[in-house]
Design a protein that fits this description.
Length: 508
């Protein structure tokens, strides 16, 4: 190798998000842009009024026709302005601007703006926003339904979602930062936080990661949740996905950051800890004793869903000596006619349950419910009678599937469905030792996992007794005078406890 060979000088790349300097004729480029527009059948361009003073152009599929005819065309016909500046003064619409920048004109046209120019102009355009506001009505939450409490859910409109949060937090400290992501989609993403409470390190980390996204199309908030996660290879969700504006408003007051995406009916909440995925917002609407009991039931249900089938396979395969004598005849009678080993029997049942789940989720609601109930009963009964599976394992798998539905956050239920299979394989290979090794592997993974740089297992690791007041159990509101330590809020105190008077004796 020739170490003295002169190296070529490296030309630094152009910085991102900056346009390449224009070197062509502006008039020619303007004509090329309009040729692209006119190639689409939904683009209209005509002279108005009949004398041809102005040229009006727009995409008819993304603008409001009533607004165009009543507030633009009618005003131009009555007022008869002679310049774009005069037209801007007489048209009763906000946020209009005059521009010659082709990029600005293109973005405005594709966002539902009407382009008005003089018939013999030089590319100078008046951009009038007239976007069509077609949107879905606010409905009841589907994945986070609650018996008590508000019945409003986010919709696909970013403005509507922000409105649902702002009416619950009518304070000027509620700040919003908007970033457009996606080279093609140019999706509007809003980052909400309460100034003076939220830690600016968390806010800046979210803004930086979203602004650095380099992808062509962002169709939903789930795209962003996967791309800005601390560990993109983890099966555990690192952001809480919610469709409830009341939950989003509540966590904002704690110091969290909420991410809204235009076109998505779900909001992202971060930083998140694993205990919050088993906490339903309905817990705060019930008595704290009942809410704490429900949370413990969910945690037990999750452990049962993950461990029950694998423990059965491990005990039947390697540790049958540990089975009580009273239970042993029942298991022998149950497995007497089954020709398969326990692992194959378990995989058959688990696969059947997953097939029923997917079929029920993809079919229409009424048909899916029928398939789930009838299919489960018919297939389970036929499998036991045919001798393919034992009735004891069928009961365990059915209970484990039912227990996995107790989680209030849909993303964590998918994780539970996935991690049951590694436990099954480990139980078949090494018995209870394999189950312990698999559990240690997942525990070590959770110990290293973070959400926006904050520990995922908090308040268990690191141990913070203060945050235990609202994690796996919920204590009364009067005991929660401080915000979670894990968020590092700028204002830690939620309220100043009042000094209660001493209770009087019964005979005073």
């Amino acid at each position: 190798m020739n170490f003295f060979k002169k190296k070529k000088k490296r030309i630094p790349p152009l910085p991102k998000n900056k346009a390449i300097p224009h070197v062509g004729d502006p008039a020619e480029d303007f004509e090329e842009l309009f040729k692209k527009f006119k190639a689409s059948k939904d683009f209209l361009s005509f002279q108005y009024p009949s004398e041809g003073a102005f040229t009006v152009s727009y995409f008819k599929t993304i603008v409001s026709p009533n607004q165009v005819h009543k507030e633009i065309l009618l005003v131009l016909a009555e007022q008869q302005p002679s310049t774009l500046i005069e037209a801007k003064k007489v048209i009763p619409i906000e946020n209009m601007k005059i521009s010659t920048d082709l990029k600005v004109i293109q973005n405005a046209a594709m966002r539902g703006a009407v382009i008005i120019q003089l018939e013999k102009g030089n590319g100078n355009c008046l951009l009038v926003p007239c976007v069509s506001s077609e949107k879905r009505q606010i409905s009841v939450p589907e994945t986070e339904f609650s018996v008590v409490g508000p019945k409003e859910a986010f919709v696909e409109s970013l403005e509507t979602n922000v409105n649902l949060i702002r009416k619950r937090l009518p304070v000027p400290e509620l700040q919003l930062k908007e970033i457009k992501v996606g080279k093609i989609s140019q999706t509007r993403t809003a980052i909400l936080y309460i100034d003076g409470i939220a830690n600016h390190e968390n806010v800046n980390r979210v803004c930086q990661r979203i602004s650095e996204l380099d992808y062509d199309t962002i169709a939903d908030s789930s795209y962003i949740a996967q791309m800005i996660a601390d560990n993109q290879n983890s099966a555990f969700p690192q952001f809480i996905d919610t469709e409830r504006p009341d939950r989003a408003a509540s966590v904002l007051s704690e110091g969290k950051v909420v991410i809204l995406v235009d076109g998505s009916p779900h909001a992202l909440i971060g930083p998140a800890s694993i205990g919050e995925f088993f906490s339903a917002f309905e817990d705060y609407l019930l008595n704290w004793h009942i809410a704490s009991g429900f949370r413990l039931i969910r945690l037990f249900a999750v452990l049962f869903s993950v461990m029950s089938t694998s423990m059965y396979v491990a005990v039947i395969t390697y540790h049958y000596q540990s089975i009580p004598e009273d239970l042993l005849p029942t298991l022998i009678a149950s497995r007497g006619a089954v020709p398969f080993p326990p692992i194959l029997e378990a995989l058959i049942l688990e696969g059947t349950i997953e097939l029923l789940r997917e079929a029920g989720a993809r079919l229409p609601t009424k048909v899916g419910q029928t398939i789930g109930i009838v299919g489960g009963i018919v297939i389970g009964t036929a499998a036991v009678q045919a001798g393919f599976v034992s009735n004891v394992l069928l009961m365990l798998v059915a209970l484990a599937a039912l227990a996995s539905f107790t989680t209030p956050i849909y993303q964590i239920s998918n994780t539970i469905r996935l991690i049951r299979f590694p436990f099954l394989i480990a139980a078949q290979l090494y018995g209870l030792l394999g189950v312990a090794i698999c559990a240690a592997f997942f525990l070590s993974h959770l110990l290293k996992l973070t959400s926006l740089g904050r520990p995922y297992l908090e308040p268990l690791y690191p141990l913070r007794l203060q945050d235990m007041k609202d994690s796996f159990i919920r204590l009364p509101f009067s005991r929660q005078k401080k915000r979670p330590v894990n968020l590092r809020p700028e204002e830690a105190i939620r309220f100043e406890p009042k000094q209660e008077p001493k209770p009087r004796d019964i005979d005073e």
